[in-house]
Amino acid sequence: MFKKLYVFVLFILITSQTLWAQQDFKDLPTLKNKHILMVWGGWEGHKPKEFTDRVAKWLSSQGANVLIFDTLSVYTDSLLLAKQDLIIQYHTMGSITKDQNKGLLTAVKNGIGIAGCHGGLGDSFRQETHYQYMVGGQWVEHPGGKINYKVDITNQNDPVTAGLKDFDIQDTEQYFMHVDPNVKVLATTTFNDEFDSWIKGAVMPVSWKKYYGKGRVFYLSIGHNPKDFDNASAWALLTRGIAWASDSRKGPTEKWLSPLYPSHTKLK
Ligand SMILES: [Zn+2]
């Protein structure tokens, strides 16, 4: 009797978790058979290899074909890039050659997606303004260093964030960024006056999506340490964003421009 009950409870648990997982990726493209290029390097303090291995393991479990490079020279291989659906880059600071940067930007413009987080995408090559034009933002400060803060999900209509709830995240960096005011913001955070009094109440995007040419761009500012993604909500944001960005070549082109400032027409 008890054995039967145990089996039944186990069955319910497994099915509900499967349903939950499907619900989690509702209206998002599949990663099955997608070709994904992961590139890591730069500042070691961000543990870029550990981050890459963690995401690669999940991508493989979703049926994606993953290639991993620890050098930016792969960006000059246009034939290889043309076969990929998505680049996931974790490369903080450092520098990129003109040819590598051109190869990367051309590939995204032609329809490969790009996704990433924290300094791995949003603080990569500080000298390259055209790279920042593609990403849509650049890190400038993280007041207080590693702190606890709240993330607000501000867009419930987009499949990347639909159904996600606001959440708290601990012992990590709250990124203050210079952001393109036209990106489609999915989540924000609000600064207090504990470290820098003059930014009390400043609202900053934590995650956004945009296009660069035909390529989909997804960014998330969480991710100072791979352990940030032990937080289920942070992991959901990252993985859902990756799924969306992987579909540049096959999915429809979405309207993404969300101009933040009133136009001259409206001011008249
Ligand atoms: Zn960091």
From TrEMBL:
Tell me the first and last residues of the signal peptide: 1-21
**Which superkingdom, per the lineage?**
Bacteria
- Enumerate the InterPro entries for this protein: Class_I_gatase-like (IPR029062), ThuA-like (IPR029010)
Limits of the ThuA-like domain: 36-245
UniProt key word ATP-binding: no
Q: Does the keyword Signal apply?
A: yes
Q: Keywords on this record? A: Signal
The record's listing under PANTHER family reads: GALACTOSE-BINDING DOMAIN-LIKE SUPERFAMILY PROTEIN (PTHR40469:SF2), SECRETED GLYCOSYL HYDROLASE (PTHR40469)
Under what name is this protein listed?
ThuA domain-containing protein
